[in-house]
Structure formats: structure tokens, C-alpha cells
Design a protein that fits this description.
The chain has 6 helices and 22 strands. By secondary structure, the protein is an alpha+beta fold. The protein folds into 2 domains: 229 residues, Glucose Permease (Domain IIA) (Distorted Sandwich); 43 residues, LysM domain (Membrane-bound Lytic Murein Transglycosylase D, Chain A, Roll). The strands form 7 sheets. Strands 5, 8, 10, 11, 12, 14, 16 and 17 form an 8-stranded antiparallel β-sheet that branches. A 3-stranded antiparallel β-sheet has the order 1-2-3.
Length: 346
Amino acid sequence: MKYPLLILFLGIFLSIGLTPANAQIFPKIIKKSNSETTTVPQERRNIELRAFDQDAYLQSLSTITDSLIFENNVNLRKSRSIIAEDQNLMIWAPTNRLIKVSEQIQIDSIWVTAFEYYANWDSKKVDIYNFDVRNFQDTVNVRLYDPFFGYQWKMPTDIMKINSSYGPRWGRMHYGTDLDLNTGDPVYAGFDGIVRVRSYDRYGYGNFLVVRHKNGLETLYGHMSKLIAQVGDEVKAGDIIGKGGSTGRSTGPHLHYELRYRGLAFDPELVYDFPNGKIKFQDYQITPGTFNQVVQARTAAYHRVKRGDTLGGIARRYGVSVSTLTRLNRISTRTILRIGQNLRVR
């Protein structure tokens, strides 16, 4: 070729053009040898790096765990009510550690308000449900125990002798079954549950506990010499929760044992065969007839004050609040009751 330099010059000129606007940029070619591999850095675009959101993670974990604790297909945005509970469901919180702080409970690291978990929760009062049995027309099946889910039962005492049964006694309603024991004997939790009330009633239960159960029932243990369980403790059936005694309104060592549904006590002998140390059924059906004696006891419009009576004790007997008694009788909580005085209860 005659003019190699001229041809090379024209080729370069035509490829780059006369102005920068016509310039073309070609990709850079990197040759790789067999003995060495060179890595080409690549820029990743449109990728947003975010820090770990701990609060969102814990909230999601709490929601998922709450779903397991409550029920399948639970609507966490809707508050539960006692009547809406499935009494056949025995799924319990997967822990033996439950702490009560103020009016909340802690299940491991998952916090839920006591209202959300139990529909009603109060560590001071025995009856907190305001349940009007006159309007109760349902039949509720209560699963008392279920070995499949590890939900057991236990007699509350080692001695099964009945000293006094449920029903009218000495002119007033006796809301439990009195079981014989000796001072210092162990008192056991009847079912798996959580202690809701730990208190002392000088003119009534003495040292007593109320335990809330997942099946919708509550049990009350009265006249104990020593209380072992604390409010918020998660107890299993058979756990020792106190020691037997004769505190409060008592004539000798015994355990006053109550079964309650929505705050109303019913006859424990409908469920237990105390002399033989057995529970009669795995499932018990609660009907309006379960509370017939309660309805009869509440028909009285006036109560005649006896020695040892208090406004609190009278209120519990007739299923009304102390504020109702003070309002109906135009008295205050500081009023001294006189023996023989008639108090209007409704």
C-alpha cells in the first residue's frame, strides 16, 4: 500500500469527527491472561440500604406470638369477652413464667394488657364481671381438663372429708364447700391457671386466693394460714399455693373452696366427687339451673345486720357493690353498722 500513513490519518479523523459532539466512546477492553484473572468492579444502582428496624421486628414477633397464645385465626384488634371464649380450647401460654406488674401480665417477653387476655382482670376484687344471672339463658360447655394438651386437675386438699356443703347456712348463703384439713396442710391448685387475687378478709375468707383458669372458671381458696402463691403467678394443677388454716370467719381449720363462672359461685359437688377424690366429668355444662340457689339468695330486698357483718361481706353475699349499698341506704363507707339494722340490698 502506497500511502499507509495517509489512510491511517483519514481513518482516525472520520472516527472522531470534527467536534466533541460527534465523539464516540467505546468500551474499555481488558484482556485476561490464563495465569491471572482480573475482577471488574461493577456499580449496583437503585439499591436502598436500610438499617435494621428493631421495633418493627419486635412488633411483628409479638403479633405472631400473640396469635399462638390466644387462638387460631384470632383477631387481635378486637377485645375478647368472657362469653366469647372457647371453653373447649386448652392452649395455654407456652411458659411457666408470668409476672404481674400493675394491671398487666408478661408472658416471656410478650406484653399484653390483662383486659385483652382475660377480658376482665382485677387483683383486688373477687367478683368483677357484673354478670346478671337473670339474663343468662345459655348452655356453656366447660372443658375441665384435657390430657392431650397437658391440662390436668388436682383435688385441692389431701383430705376429702366435707365439713359443710354449698347452699344456705345459718341464715345466709354459703358459696363454697368446706373441706377438712389440719393447720399447715398443703392446699393445691385445682387446675392450671394464674393467680388473680391474693388478699385477707377479716370477717370472711381470711387469707384467700382466687385463681383464674383458661377454661373460663375461677377457683377460690379461703381461710388459709399461709399464702404461698403471688398475684400473677402461673400455677399448674397440683402446685402448692398455700397452707390450710382457720383465718377469717372460721370455727376451725378447713379449706373453703369455691368454683366460680363469670364471678358467680356454684356448687363444687356438681363437678367433684369429694369422698372418692374424683372429678365427675371432663366437660361440665353450665346452664341457668346451675345458679338456682344464687337466684334464690338474691331475692331478699333487705339484710338484717348481724355481729361481724361488714359492707363488703354483705355486698358479696347479695352480689352487689358496696357503692350500691351506700347509695340505696344513704350511708357512706365509714358508717358504723348497728346489729339489728336493716340494710336495703336492692
